[in-house]
Amino acid sequence: MGGHRDHGEAPVAVTLQFLGCGDAFGSGGRLQTCLHLPTPEGGLLLDCGASSLIAMKRAGVDPASIGWVALTHLHGDHFGGIPFLVLDGQFNRRERPLVIAGPPGVQARVEAAMEVFFPDSTRVRRRFPLAFVELAERAPATFGACTVTAYGVEHPSGAPAYALRVAIGGKIVAYSGDTEWTEALLDAARDADLFVCEAYFFAKAVKYHLDYRTLREHADTLTCKRLVLTHMHTDMLARLADIDAETASDGLVLTV
Known about the structure:
seven-stranded mixed sheet, alpha/beta, Metallo-beta-lactamase, Chain A
């Protein structure tokens, strides 16, 4: 990919909203992962953890304004909010189409979750189309104003796990998802205007997750313009004063 921009248009201001930035266990009382990129055509969510509908309504984001959800992987704290998002649309007479994009097997996993939470919900007739798209590694996919490219990372979830690179408004926003260190992160975040990256522990190495110390060891190889850490365990939250990087918080809004 080198240093080229993914889109040729002149850059404009892009807003990223952390509706939730927490881990699977609600460490620090934080809501589960859900990042919001609003566009005139509709919002794109990067992940949609189980608490995401609460997060949207708390932040004043109309769930019906969401046109697309791009999932990094199929763990409940990253996709478990989708059954609630669909049900909200059904009962509030949503008409805007909703597209769920994710790793291979995304439709079967989401529909299985819907049936566990709300039996027969997959067979209900809705006013809005619900579609599923499987992301292929390093194959750009366009969702409204956004082009999303997936990069394979190391985080087993019963399906491939991805970091995501989003081209929007002439800017690049990259997001690691959950993963241990892998060279694929360098490509996903190459020359990105913003790289949102997991830092689960401060120094403790846990398989399939990133810690802050490991990330610092690779800092010289990252070419992103801005780094923001997310998905932090209580161990990491207790060491925020020792961190030389920006960190996410629920409700944080960044302009890129």
